[in-house]
Amino acid sequence: MLSIVLGNLFNLIGSAFNAYSSTRGSRKAILLVQEAAMACYVASGLFLQGYSGVVQNVVGMVRNVIAVYLPNDKFFGWVLVILGIVFGVYFNNLGFIGLFPVVCSVPFAIFAIRKDANALLLKIALTISNFGFLVYAFVTYNFVGMITNSFAIAVALISIYKDQLAKK
Q1: Helix, strand or coil for residue 90?
Q2: Residue ranges covered by each domain of the chain
Q3: Which ranges constitute the DSSP H helices of 74-142?
Q4: Taking phi first (over 0 means left), then psi (-120 to 50 degrees means alpha), and beta for anything else, what does residue 49 get?
Q5: Separation of first and last alpha carbons in the chain
Q6: Which of 1, 27, 40, 122 is the one with CA 20 to 30 A from 159?
Q7: ∠ CA(8), CA(11), CA(16), 5° rounding?
């Protein structure tokens, strides 16, 4: 029971960072705030035994650091996208549903390593990723994750809408 409580607590903190990242106006800011979110999600996944999610977040953290500080290194970025998929499948301990974080993280991973990807593309990809983790949270009994991923999706959609209004 303690592991479920701790897993949900870390998920709550990570989700606050996740929602906050979708309000940032630059690619670099989104990726850096995502580092804090993913660190919390790693802890949450370890407590809740969702290992494919843990792997996705660890690989994602490395990928984001590379994308921010070595933006011209596309080779290593693509290696990390592929490793995220391979490790996510390998460490999947939840069957078909364990593939949701893997599949839904791919668009964000691709846009994260693309130097030409703008904040809008990252926000859209983040919304897709959050949907996958919402489903995953349901299966791993991450009750806070269900609520907070729904909240993060709503915040991202509002941010995308506001960005589009500002362009008009």
Answers
A1: helix
A2: 2-167
A3: 74-90, 100-113, 119-139
A4: left
A5: 50
A6: 40
A7: 130
